[in-house]
Write a structure and sequence with these properties.
With about 850 residues, the protein is an alpha+beta fold. It is built from twelve helices and 51 strands. It has six domains: about 5-15 and about 610-740, Immunoglobulin-like (Sandwich), CATH 2.60.40; about 40-265, Rossmann fold, CATH 3.40.50; about 270-340 and about 365-395; about 405-490, Immunoglobulin-like, CATH 2.60.40.2550; about 495-610, Immunoglobulins (Immunoglobulin-like), CATH 2.60.40.10; about 745-865, Immunoglobulin-like (Sandwich). Helices cover about 15% and strands about 40% of the residues. The strands form 13 sheets. It has a nine-stranded mixed β-sheet, with helices on both faces. Strands 24-30-29-26-27 form a five-stranded mixed β-sheet, with no helix packed on it. This is Peptidase C11 clostripain.
């Protein structure tokens, strides 16, 4: 590839958050025969294609053969297609298949298997993992899917998720194998909490898609090459999700749907189940007062092709938005945190014009509109509070029968609740919130005697507050909900809040930016803010900042309520040796303070030795190239850099290596500083040069727009990314694929040679492989033969076709030829000219008939011209 380069200077800072730790390898299989080490990866595919996906099964087998098994991976497939006696077991080789007799797997098996029988899955796994063992075992279940209800359809047969669980349990019992590394579903709608929870004991990770998958499914030719000896578990999990989503996002694989994919850590599913149960308990309890609001939350939450499957994360957000109960909001927050802990990888992409999946977060949950499916009750997840909530959907709700009379008063510093209740209420729940919605107090009180307990709440700060009082009966149903808003508390004190933003560095463009970790010798300052969040002016303010060796003092005569000011130490810090330093800042004033704890702040300053740097590079397509109106549209790619833990500030040069005939239309960067602020810089071409880009952050996103030239051959083109740090050392590399779509075009011309013979020139002016059919229309009395009438042409190839055996009565004849694309029949060009037999050569022309037909976004150029040889 001839490189065209964008050079950008990146100032990249350390991300302080540690990487997510993955579980250990668990029960890995040992060495084969105690001698040779096993392949790293066992990739076992249960391909149920005896249905409308039969052709796709064949396609995916071809994709697998493009890579095949080697010393690092075993690719083993059990496949059944739409035919009789066509079940087969293969070890997939590079460009080949090694078949095993089915009777060797199970002596009772014939050549037509029922893939919907769980014993078939069990026996396949027993054979595949024993005959082709590996250190890490991946099971892929391939077919149509409909969530927990069915997958692996074969006629009227199919597997349910409990049947899969039973098959896996039997397989492990017989073989003594530990849990699989990954269970993946190359099937629709299998990204459900209930599915992952059902299979949690049999794999370290579970994969699924919330939405429909395109018929093309996983892109095995993109995924399998990434499974090598040095590939880690974390990299494998990233590859499974990213190779699938990115293949459709960048257009290298056509597909008719938006795509979603996630991988869940099964070790985190029990805590997630507990929080979902709590969320269900709260939703059930409020049905008596807020059923309509809960229904609205469901109706507006992210949905996929099955309306009973709702995105779990989005549902909790919508419930908090529609339902006024703080208990529901808190329960939803717990669910989202537990789901985040369980999610290892998640990606989604909305195909333009198809279902919007922008609110997909990786897991759906079963939430029918009314009566649930009987299959739901067979699931291990169908217990606890969520099960109770599902049961209540089809039940007649009890009517509220208890009520409360509440009085809430404020006396400057206190909020006091008192009152009474009627009927058989059993429990009182209180929530005190500030104006940002933060829960500052949460209390529960058991009731008896008809009087509410007198409750006094004492907020730490002045401000406006809201108090929610919820009344429940003995069965947990909400009976009444009292809300008091605008409760003003005034402590009549200042409230100084000190914050250390962190080390501040300067960049050549004159800005100063909040950094993270620093390298030895880097000049920096310390900066932050001090604000008064109280109701009284603070006077004679003293602020002392120290790093343990030096101290800096700041003074302000006063700071009025609601105002803040910045502080910055001198630019003199550069002599600190590598190590950790505690920076502290303490403020005082002449009066007392609402919250003395907020008068101080501390910050751990990290200085690391000088050394090389490393950055993780990821890329995602925002727009893909299309062929429209005779030209390509740009591909827009978002490139993200993440600095590895333990490195300091660095200037990094970024190089993009792309075909020299392409043009870089525009680039812009979105930069996240260590303080969370986001900046934007732009880069625009100036006579072939590009302005340097400064990235003041540990995370930087570069948006680059590439325009392929019309001379680009259809198919994938790799763009390289490389980083060079300030020590002229490599700081990371990566690549992404730009898929150039095919356009079709034909040119047809003719030339008469000196000896009177004629030659046609058939040119594929399109950028992809083309099959061309050449036909002739001759007047009566003239005969001639074409040396070639059916031809395969490479992109931009011209083929000569000789006209031989020309015979007829002496004279001039009008002859016509037509070249037509077999792949795109509407692309056709006709050529008509005068051909003389005997006598003088007649070089007059009848203008060629040009047909430039466009269909399905394809444009044909049909050009006829005479060439004299």
């Amino acid at each position: 590839m001839s490189p065209g380069r964008l050079v950008a200077l990146l100032l990249a800072l350390l991300l302080l958050a540690p990487p997510v730790a993955l579980p250990g390898p668990g029960a890995l299989l040992g060495l084969a025969g105690g001698e040779e080490p096993l392949p790293k990866w066992g990739f076992y595919v249960y391909m149920a294609g005896d249905n409308s996906l039969s052709e796709e099964a064949a396609d995916d087998l071809f994709e697998m053969q493009a890579v095949g098994s080697n010393e690092n991976r075993e690719v083993v497939v059990l496949v059944d297609q739409e035919g009789e006696n066509d079940s087969r077991a293969y070890r997939v080789l590079h460009e080949g298949l090694e078949e095993s007799a089915l009777s060797n797997i199970n002596s009772d098996w014939g050549d037509e298997l029922d893939m919907g029988d769980p014993s078939t899955l069990r026996d396949f796994l027993k054979w595949a993992t024993t005959e082709y063992p590996a250190q890490e075992r991946i099971l892929v279940i391939w077919d149509h899917g409909n969530g927990f209800k069915r997958v692996a359809e074969d006629g009227g047969s199919y597997l349910t998720v409990p049947e899969i669980e039973g098959a896996l349990a039997e397989y492990r019992s017989v073989t003594g194998h530990g849990p699989l590394t990954l269970i993946g579903f190359d099937a629709c709608l299998m990204g459900m909490f209930e599915i992952a929870y059902e299979l949690r004991e049999h794999a370290a990770y579970i994969h699924g898609s919330e939405a429909y998958e395109p018929q093309e499914g996983w892109t095995y030719n993109h995924l399998l090459p990434l499974l090598g000896a040095e590939t880690t578990r974390e990299q494998m999990l990233e590859a499974v999700v990213h190779s699938y989503v990115e293949s459709y996002r960048n257009g290298s694989v056509p597909g008719g749907y938006s795509v979603t994919a996630t991988i869940i850590d099964t070790a985190q599913l029990e805590p997630l189940h507990e929080t979902i149960s709590g969320f269900g308990t709260e939703l059930r309890a409020i049905q008596t007062l807020y059923r309509d609001e809960v229904d609205e939350a469901r109706a507006n939450s992210q949905v996929f092709e099955n309306s009973a499957y709702r995105d779990l994360h989005d549902l909790t957000l919508l419930a908090a938005e529609w339902v006024p109960s703080p208990a529901v909001r808190l329960a939803g927050e717990s669910v989202r945190q537990a789901q985040a802990n369980a999610t290892v990888v998640e990606e989604h992409w909305t195909k333009p014009g198809r279902r919007d999946v922008s609110n997909a977060h990786g897991l759906t949950i079963y939430y029918p509109a009314s009566t649930p499916s009987s299959k739901y009750f067979d699931l291990a997840a169908a217990t606890g509070g969520w099960r109770d909530f599902i049961d209540a959907l089809a039940s007649e709700l009890p009517q509220p029968h208890a009520s409360l009379t509440a009085e809430v008063v404020t006396d400057g510093a206190n909020i006091t609740l008192s009152g009474s209740y009627s009927d058989d209420a059993a429990r009182l729940e209180l929530f005190l919130q500030d104006t940002d919605g933060n829960i500052l107090a949460h209390e529960e009180h058991m009731l008896g005697g008809g009087a509410l307990p007198t409750v006094m709440l004492q907020p730490d700060r002045s401000g406006s507050y809201r108090l929610d009082v919820l009344l429940y009966d003995n069965d947990g149903w909400l009976q009444d909900h009292y809300i008091a808003e605008g409760l003003m508390v005034d402590l009549q004190l200042p409230d100084l809040v000190v914050e250390i933003a962190g080390p501040v560095i300067g960049v050549p463009n004159g800005q100063w930016l909040i950094a993270g970790t620093l390298s030895e010798g880097h000049t920096f300052s310390l900066g932050g803010t001090i604000s008064n969040q109280g109701t009284v002016t603070a006077t004679d303010i003293q602020l002392v900042v120290t790093d343990g060796e030096e101290a800096w003092q700041f003074q302000w005569p006063e700071l009025t309520p609601g105002n803040s000011t910045e502080w910055l130490t001198p630019w003199e810090l550069s002599n600190l040796a590598a190590g950790n330093y505690t920076v502290s800042a303490i403020a005082t004033n002449t009066a007392s303070d609402e919250d003395p704890a907020s008068n101080m702040d501390s910050y751990m300053l990290q200085i690391v030795p000088l050394g090389s740097h490393s950055y993780q590079i990821t890329s995602n397509h925002v727009n893909i190239t299309q062929f429209e109106d005779g030209d390509f549209s740009p591909t827009v790619v978002n490139i993200t850099l993440d600095g590895d833990t333990g490195q300091g500030v660095a200037f990094v040069e970024l190089l993009l290596d792309y075909p020299v005939t392409w043009s870089l239309q525009d680039t812009s960067s979105y930069l996240t500083g260590a303080d969370g602020n986001v900046f934007r810089d732009g880069i625009f071409s100036v006579e072939g040069a590009y302005t340097p880009l400064f990235v003041p952050a540990g995370t930087a996103s570069l948006l680059a727009s590439f325009l392929p030239s019309l001379s680009s051959v259809a198919g994938p083109h790799e763009v390289g990314i490389s980083l060079i740090d300030h020590n002229n050392l490599s700081a990371g590399s990566s690549s992404f694929t730009v898929n150039v779509p095919q356009y079709h075009g034909l040119q047809l011309s003719a030339a008469e040679q000196d000896n009177g013979d004629w030659t046609l020139f058939v040119e594929n002016s399109g950028n992809g492989q083309e099959t061309v059919i050449l036909t002739k229309v001759l007047p009566e009395g003239l005969t001639l033969h074409l040396s070639d009438s059916y031809m395969q042409l490479a992109p931009f190839e011209t083929r000569e076709v000789r006209l031989s055996g020309i015979a007829g009565v002496e004279g001039s004849y009008s002859v016509s030829f037509s070249a037509q694309s077999q792949l795109q029949p509407e692309v056709q060009v006709n050529l008509t000219f005068e051909l003389s037999v005997g006598g003088e050569v007649n070089s007059s022309w009848i203008p060629a008939l040009l047909l430039g037909l466009a269909g399905g976004g394809v444009v044909a150029w049909a050009v006829a011209r005479r060439q004299l040889l």
